[in-house]
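Memo to structure team: turn this sequence into structure tokens by end of day. - J.P.
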Amino acid sequence: NLSLQEQPEQRRTHQRCRDYVKLERNLQPDARFCGARLPRLNPCWSERGATFCLPRFFILGEMKCGTTTLYELLLKHPRVLPPKTKEPRFLQTGRFGATTLSRYALEFADAAKHDDAVTFDASPVYLRSPTARFWLARWLPESKLIVLVRDPVQRTYSHWKMGSDWLTSKCSSPAQIEGFEKVRPWITFEAVARRSLIMTHMKICGALNGIMRIRQGLLPVRWPEGVGGLNSSFGRCLLERDEDLTHSFLDELDSRSPSKDFANALEKQGREAVQCSEMMLAPPSAVLKSATYAAEIERWAKVFPPDQLMVIDTDDLTRRRQQLMNETFNFLGLSAVDVGSQSRFCVKGKAGVMDVLHAEDVNISFSGKTARLQVGDCESDTATMHDERGVMHHNIDPTLQAQLRRFFEPHNQRLYRFLGRDLKW
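Reply from structure team:
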């Protein structure tokens, strides 16, 4: 599995597989699926006495919206069998050319052994993958699709928290810890969220003013080339979108901050922090992924009919777990089963090779090295609270929360219009 390999080994694997992948990509369409389709609910084929299967359904995403919990609850059904890897990511844009369909089918070898089995792919990167969207519409048009959506403010915090946990777990040498302390003010939740907001506003205002090149990442924000400050149409756009936030970044925009010493530290330790966090701490992704549920779902709805697409509010996994799972099993053509009382599960390991981790577990492993922290949201601490229905909420600074909610509101309304219901975010 590529996700288990270091970069040099990954490059060697890509080199060895390149010719095989190219050969398969050049096959005629009717040669991609060999053999006879079997009369199963799950898409399976038989060829020369061998049976291979592909997924019946896909959990498309979104990341940090409970895909692991849904994955675990689905496995309560005796007919549902998991892939060998929780997130195969075969159809991830940028990764699609790295492996073959035959290799992908090996993920579902267990399902091939059982006539009544149903299997699935739970790669949450597919929601934003044009490759996944068009490949599934072309080759598995009968697929059932599930998308989880979560209160965007809560998802934004959870996104940052996973990045922060990765940073602590993966890069923990004394030198790294000392280096990260130098840039700590820029990698707190408040700092990442606010920087994500201003960069997103700048991206939107840039598009409205014909400015395509907007700096993104853990970097100082600067006026785009040729923009004349707050009095320009670009500057006025920023003020209209969030005046207080814009003024709070004015020293950076005008290149009066950060200091040269801090900028030098940011160049080195900031880049390493982003890499150690698997890019989760790089603005503006935490905010952007929380804002664009509707836009991504609408793209899928253009190529799949409504009866093949199910959208789940993450909080319903706690508020009405059994009822929701009954609806989900019915959507998949399966009978209802009791899924038990636990409604939250975490993950361990690197994205793409995640094993399920129950809340009471405390250790994770990276390439055979034990790490001290869980990756995920299962642990409870002083930064979280639960409502009367048991749904977990992160405590967030009220001023920042108001800024985030103001930004997300039009995006939420777009999602509500698509769903035909108000999720009250």
